[in-house]
């Protein structure tokens, strides 16, 4: 049920971290993977790695805040593969600051990447999935859509707001497109090591000690521990699941 043999998967924000891991997980399950990001060298290297696993892959430069780049990317994917079965909306950023300190530019940057980016990519992929009468959309939200923290490290009000919006958008999409054989679900990761977190959270021993004490798992997530949930929502194992979110946080949100 979790096999993806012959499926065409699209991953945004694939140049590093959770997106890169997910692209490789898709390939290991037999999917052909289209990797999209702004950093061309990184995704071209990833595409070569994916091809070495025995499937096809293309790397396409794409900024999810720019509609023309998205349109061009989707056209290139259709010209190459003829369909899109899976869309992982993973591209995201985290800008630090509260509403009393954030600039309007930083607020807009968060909203444009984390929310508008999902809207724009989906705008061009959903019609393809509707024509196929099949599609799996997985939107990456965050535990910070559900929880706030008073720690100075975690004051990221635009991140809280944008990731909460992802949950609402996912539910709306799920309700509208289920009749076309499309499921739309979201994932709320807890603390994973990535470019977004390594320069702040993982460099603070005080923060990590506090996190480990609060989290029932007593540790941050390990590399690859989000892949199982991504594969579940991306495969026919979740054929009757839509409009839902799964929190992958080692139990932090239950205490």
UniProtKB/TrEMBL annotation:
<keyword id="KW-0521">NADP</keyword>
<dbReference type="InterPro" id="IPR002347">
    <property type="entry name" value="SDR_fam"/>
</dbReference>
<keyword id="KW-0560">Oxidoreductase</keyword>
<comment type="similarity">
    <text>Belongs to the short-chain dehydrogenases/reductases (SDR) family.</text>
</comment>
<dbReference type="InterPro" id="IPR020904">
    <property type="entry name" value="Sc_DH/Rdtase_CS"/>
</dbReference>
<protein>
    <submittedName>
        <fullName>Short-chain dehydrogenase/reductase SDR</fullName>
    </submittedName>
</protein>
<dbReference type="GO" id="GO:0016491">
    <property type="term" value="F:oxidoreductase activity"/>
</dbReference>
<dbReference type="Pfam" id="PF13561">
    <property type="entry name" value="adh_short_C2"/>
</dbReference>
<dbReference type="InterPro" id="IPR052178">
    <property type="entry name" value="Sec_Metab_Biosynth_SDR"/>
</dbReference>
<dbReference type="InterPro" id="IPR036291">
    <property type="entry name" value="NAD(P)-bd_dom_sf"/>
</dbReference>
<dbReference type="GO" id="GO:0008206">
    <property type="term" value="P:bile acid metabolic process"/>
</dbReference>
């Amino acid at each position: 049920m979790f096999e993806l043999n012959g499926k065409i998967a699209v991953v945004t924000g694939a140049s590093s971290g959770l997106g890169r891991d997910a692209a490789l997980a898709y390939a290991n399950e037999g999917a052909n993977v289209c990797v999209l990001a702004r950093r061309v060298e990184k995704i071209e290297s990833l595409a070569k790695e994916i091809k070495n696993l025995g499937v096809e892959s293309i790397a396409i430069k794409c900024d999810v805040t720019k509609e023309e780049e998205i349109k061009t990317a989707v056209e290139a994917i259709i010209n190459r593969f003829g369909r899109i079965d899976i869309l992982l909306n993973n591209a995201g950023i985290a800008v630090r600051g509260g509403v009393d300190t954030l600039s309007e530019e930083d607020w807009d940057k968060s909203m444009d990447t984390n929310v508008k980016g999902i809207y724009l990519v989906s705008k061009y992929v959903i019609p393809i999935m509707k024509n196929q009468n099949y599609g799996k959309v997985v939107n990456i939200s965050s535990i910070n859509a559900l929880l706030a923290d008073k720690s100075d490290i975690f004051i990221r009000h635009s991140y809280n707001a944008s990731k909460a919006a992802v949950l609402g958008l996912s539910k709306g999409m799920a309700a509208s497109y289920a009749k076309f054989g499309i499921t739309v679900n979201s994932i709320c990761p807890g603390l994973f090591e990535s470019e977004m977190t390594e320069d702040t959270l993982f460099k603070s021993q005080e923060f990590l000690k506090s996190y480990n004490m609060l989290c029932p798992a007593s540790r941050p997530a390990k590399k690859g521990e989000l892949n199982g949930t991504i594969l579940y929502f991306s495969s026919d194992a979740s054929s009757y699941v839509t409009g839902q979110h799964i929190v992958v946080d080692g139990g932090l949100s239950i205490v």
